[in-house]
């Protein structure tokens, strides 16, 4: 990996993601390296968790994980985000190398925490996730993956095996010059509280969720 540029070096750059720090991060999954970036276009701090030797930059198993405080930290059953984060980190360690890019500013598909909570209230009243966002006058999905691609480029990654069910993530990486050699499904067993959320993802947002067929047949 390249050397840290430091905060002053980061502030001197006019735009884009710039690396600020590398730090060891032992976790319950394994020993990662946390690589911190500053996205100077948006003023957001971002982090990539790197496991193992990613030199060569080809066929790297990765996850672009959108920040979800309620799912990742609080164990919300409204979505499957926390379980996807857990599964992705375990898969990377099992693979022996890989990267999880944790994308801050993506809360609620990019609408922010408070707006997401407002949308969740509307969903409890009967709207799906798409309808709730639109009812609030907000985009269905406001996420941008430019910074993720910039971070991967900085880490020397040229092609990836992308853990995702979302076709838009693949399209975004390709658009920003990262080859996607394989899209690896990250399928989580649904529960009563998130089945509507997951069906909306599949039916309205084109996510690859074939395991819901069995749930539909049994319901």
Commentary on this structure:
Residues 2-13 have low confidence and may be disordered. This protein has ten helices and seven strands. It is an alpha/beta fold and 219 residues long. The chain has helices spanning 6-12, 69-73, 81-95, 107-110, 113-124, 129-135, 146-154, 167-175, 195-205, 212-218; strands at residues 17-26, 31-39, 44-51, 60-66, 98-103, 159-163, 179-184. The chain starts with 5 loop residues before the first helix and ends with a helix. A seven-stranded mixed beta sheet has the order 1-2-3-5-4-6-7, sandwiched between helices.
- Give the biggest sheet: 7 strands, mixed
Structural class: alpha/beta
- Quick one: overall form? globular
Mean pLDDT: 92
Unreliable parts: 2-13
Strand content: 15-25%
The ordered H/E elements are HEEEEHHEHHHHEHEHH
What is the rounded distance between the termini?
A: 50 Å
* Oligomeric state of the chains in view: single chain
Helix content: 25-40%
Count the DSSP helices: 10
Q: Report the count of strand segments.
A: 7
Strand order of the largest sheet: 1-2-3-5-4-6-7
């Amino acid at each position: 990996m390249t050397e840290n540029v430091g905060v002053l070096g980061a502030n001197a750059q006019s735009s884009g993601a710039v690396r600020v720090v590398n730090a060891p991060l032992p976790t319950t999954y394994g020993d990662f390296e946390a690589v911190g970036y500053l996205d100077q276009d948006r003023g957001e701090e971002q982090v990539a968790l790197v496991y193992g030797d990613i030199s060569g930059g080809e066929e790297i198993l990765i996850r672009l994980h959108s920040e979800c405080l309620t799912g990742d930290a609080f164990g919300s059953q409204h979505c499957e985000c926390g379980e996807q984060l857990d599964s992705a980190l375990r898969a990377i360690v099992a693979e022996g190398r890989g990267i999880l890019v944790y994308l801050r500013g993506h809360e609620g598909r990019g609408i922010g925490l408070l707006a997401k909570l407002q949308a969740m209230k509307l969903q409890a009243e009967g709207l799906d996730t798409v309808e709730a966002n639109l009812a609030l006058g907000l985009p269905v999905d406001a996420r941008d993956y430019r910074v993720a691609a910039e971070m991967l480029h900085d880490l020397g990654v040229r092609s990836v095996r992308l853990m995702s069910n979302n076709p838009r993530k693949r399209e975004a990486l390709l658009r920003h010059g990262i080859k996607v050699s394989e899209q690896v499904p990250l399928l989580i067993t649904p529960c009563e509280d998130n089945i509507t959320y997951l069906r909306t993802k599949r039916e309205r947002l084109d996510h690859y969720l074939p395991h819901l067929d069995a749930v539909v047949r049994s319901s």
